[in-house]
Structures are given as structure tokens and as C-alpha cells.
């Protein structure tokens, strides 16, 4: 059984790992300062995990961010996680992590288990040309790459979870990767509710979005698709709070209900 973790909405969009300056006896003499590997303030996208010589590529959502507050928060590929960390020079120690319990595809769940095991304990960090490699004491490794933050407007956002208060819930079975939205420079927003397509207007301010009247197609949809559609429609009405952090976006109504989205994979689109 996986540990249940209620992650605040801010953590759905802002997912982080920590670093602090510490003294080390190594170097030119006792008491000299060994600088920490400069990995803070960066969104790290997980590229792959190598265990016993076998390399496994990561799902698009797998990532970690780094702050100076001693917490590691990120996404294993489907579920969000949080853990205490300590950085000393090129050594990063990650305590056992808490994580959400969203249902995931078996292949993704297997990757999550592998990544979770590799990101626990004492890790040696090596940073080269924007690529970070974390190596365990037995020689397994996690490879990550720094990624710039995409803009809110013009990016295709794929809905990947529903928000209820301070918890994240997986999408209804069979609706994964179907709902998405894109904000246009002309003040429009359009996309898919999981079955029907929609258009509306969106007035974006510093931390909120005010949606206009929503228009959509009228196709008959399956039960899970309609359940998702109804929840998304409610979150695309009136004024909602949004939070954007690197490749994650959350929209939350005043009652705490809403949804989270990530940058969509458009590599296969024409």
C-alpha cells in the first residue's frame, strides 16, 4: 500500500528539492567550505533511470524542482511526492518520500516504483552542461535535464488530475490524455473537455482567470467522459485562481475544486 499524501494545490504546480551550504573537512584543510552542487531554482525533468545496468526512459510528467528549504517535491510520472532532503557538497541525502495514490497505468507505476527507490538515500550529484546525474551508493543512477518554463498563453495544457481541497485525484478511467486547453493571444481559450470540444474567452490577470460563456459541441459521450466534462465545465466558469510553475498549471475555484494540467506532448501532431 502506498502512503497517502495530501499535497496542497501549490505543490501540484510547484514541485521542489533542496540545497543548503555546509562545511566539509575535505578540501584544502579542516573547516574549508565545499560548495554545494548548484541545482537550486531549476525545474529538473527526469530523463531516465538506470538500475543494474538497465536504462528505463521516464514518462513526460516525471520531474523534480529544487529550493533552499530542505524539501523535495515532484512527480514520479503520475503521482506527486514529497520528501526531506539534505545537500552537503556533491552529496544529496533524500529521506523516504510520501506520495499520492492516484491510479496509474501499470507501465508508469512500475517506473514510479523504480524511480522512488533510486531517489532515496545518499546520492552523488554531478552537473554537466545542464544535465544532472544522481548516483546511488550501489551504482544505479537517475538522469535529469534542466527545462525552461513554458508560457501560460500559447502552450497546450493536458489535464492530468482533478483537485478537491488539498488533494489530487486521478481522472476517471478511460479519460486520460483526452482533455486539454490552450489560451490564445487574442483572449480566447479552446480545447477538449474529454469528449466535446469547447471555446470561450479568458481574461488573464496576475493570479486569476475570468472565463466568459463557454460554447461546446454536443456529442453524446460515455459515462466517465461525461463525469470529467461536467467537472471541467464547472472549473471553466467565472473567475478562478491559477498557478503556473514550469510545466504544471492548476486552476482552482473558490470552493477548492479544480484541476491540474501539464504541458502536452505535441511531438506526434502535424
What's the layout of helices and strands?
Layout: H1 9-13, E1 17-18, E2 43-51, E3 54-57, E4 63-67, E5 71-75, E6 80-88, E7 91-94, E8 98-99, H2 106-118, E9 121-128, E10 131-135, E11 141-147, E12 156-164, E13 167-169, E14 179-183, E15 188-193, E16 197-204, E17 208-211, E18 215-216, H3 223-235, E19 238-245, E20 248-252, E21 257-263
Summarize the structure.
With 270 residues, the protein is mainly beta.
Q: Taking strands numbered 1, 2, ... along the chain, how are they ordered across the largest sheet?
A: 2-4-5-6-7-9-10-11
Into which percent range does the helicity of residues fall?
Answer: 10-25%
Number of strands: 21
For the residues shown, what is the average pLDDT?
84
Low-confidence stretches: 1-32
Distance between the termini: 42 Å
- Shape call: elongated
CATH topological fold name of the largest domain: Lipocalin
Amino acid at each position: 500500500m502506498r502512503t497517502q499524501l495530501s499535497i496542497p494545490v501549490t505543490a501540484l504546480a510547484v514541485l521542489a528539492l533542496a540545497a543548503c551550504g555546509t562545511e566539509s573537512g575535505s578540501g584544502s584543510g579542516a573547516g574549508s567550505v565545499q560548495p554545494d552542487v548548484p541545482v537550486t531554482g531549476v525545474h529538473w525533468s527526469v530523463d531516465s533511470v538506470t538500475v543494474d545496468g538497465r536504462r528505463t526512459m521516464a514518462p513526460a510528467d516525471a520531474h523534480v524542482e529544487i529550493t533552499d528549504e530542505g524539501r523535495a517535491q515532484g512527480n514520479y510520472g503520475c503521482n506527486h511526492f514529497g520528501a526531506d532532503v539534505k545537500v552537503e557538497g556533491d552529496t544529496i541525502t533524500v529521506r523516504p518520500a510520501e506520495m499520492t495514490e492516484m491510479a496509474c497505468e501499470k507501465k508508469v507505476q512500475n517506473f514510479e516504483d523504480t524511480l522512488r527507490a533510486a531517489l532515496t538515500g545518499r546520492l552523488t550529484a554531478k552537473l554537466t552542461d545542464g544535465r544532472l546525474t544522481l548516483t546511488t551508493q550501489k551504482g544505479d543512477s537517475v538522469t535529469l535535464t534542466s527545462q525552461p518554463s513554458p508560457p501560460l498563453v500559447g502552450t497546450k495544457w493536458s489535464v492530468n488530475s482533478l483537485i478537491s481541497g488539498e488533494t489530487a485525484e486521478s481522472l476517471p478511467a478511460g479519460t486520460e490524455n483526452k482533455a486539454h486547453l490552450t489560451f490564445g493571444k487574442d483572449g480566447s481559450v479552446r480545447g477538449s473537455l474529454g469528449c466535446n470540444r469547447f471555446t470561450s474567452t479568458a481574461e488573464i490577470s496576475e493570479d486569476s482567470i475570468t472565463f466568459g460563456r463557454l460554447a461546446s459541441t454536443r456529442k453524446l459521450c460515455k459515462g466517465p467522459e461525461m463525469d470529467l466534462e461536467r467537472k471541467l465545465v464547472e472549473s471553466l466558469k467565472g473567475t478562478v485562481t491559477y498557478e503556473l510553475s514550469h510545466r504544471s498549471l492548476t486552476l482552482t475555484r473558490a470552493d477548492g475544486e479544480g484541476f491540474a494540467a501539464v504541458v502536452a506532448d505535441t511531438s506526434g501532431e502535424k
